[in-house]
Write a structure and sequence with these properties.
39% helix, alpha/beta, 6 helices, single chain
């Protein structure tokens, strides 16, 4: 879910081939230290990225039981990004939040992804809760601009209980 324009948080560096969200941000830029999340992708079109996408989709179709994200993670861990010479930036969860690792900075968050969730109904319910909280936050800041910094400091996302409980269901 986009709360703000995420393009302002992307690097203008033209040498980057791929900018992608992660389940949790380690601060380490190396691919082997990040768990890729396909919730937000910004891809520069070139031969390297086209080759990556072709390989990914080909492998995805051959991988029974694995979802697209797991397949891409395996390709990354297997060295595909390095072999292709891909320059990748992993996006901070401060700006590109998700249910695995919430942004702790409501003044910076641009997107929220319903990752770490098993069922579509749970994703929907918890994303609707995020939207309600976002609207309440924005209304409070707009209504009381003199205390905006206190509102920002006091803001905390509620637990994503539907998604947490989705792992207990079959």
């Amino acid at each position: 879910m986009w709360l703000r324009n995420p393009f302002a948080e992307l690097s203008p560096n033209q040498t980057l081939d791929l900018q992608t969200s992660v389940d949790s941000f380690t601060g380490d830029p190396r691919p082997e230290h990040n768990f890729i999340n396909t919730g937000f992708f910004y891809i520069r079109s070139n031969n390297k990225t086209m080759s990556m996408l072709e390989t990914w989709y080909e492998q995805k179709d051959k991988s029974p039981g694995g979802n697209d994200q797991q397949v891409l993670q395996g390709l990354m861990e297997g060295g595909l990004f390095g072999r292709l010479g891909l320059q990748v930036r992993f996006l901070e969860t401060r700006h590109f939040s998700g249910f695995c690792q919430d942004s702790q900075d409501v003044s910076a968050v641009t997107t929220v992804h319903a990752n770490c969730c098993r069922h579509i109904n749970a994703k929907y319910e918890d994303l609707m809760a995020v939207l309600r909280e976002w609207k309440q936050f924005k209304a409070a800041v707009n209504t009381h601009p003199e205390t905006a910094s206190d509102i920002i400091r006091g803001f905390k996302w509620s637990a994503h209980t539907n998604c947490q409980n989705s792992w207990k269901q079959r």
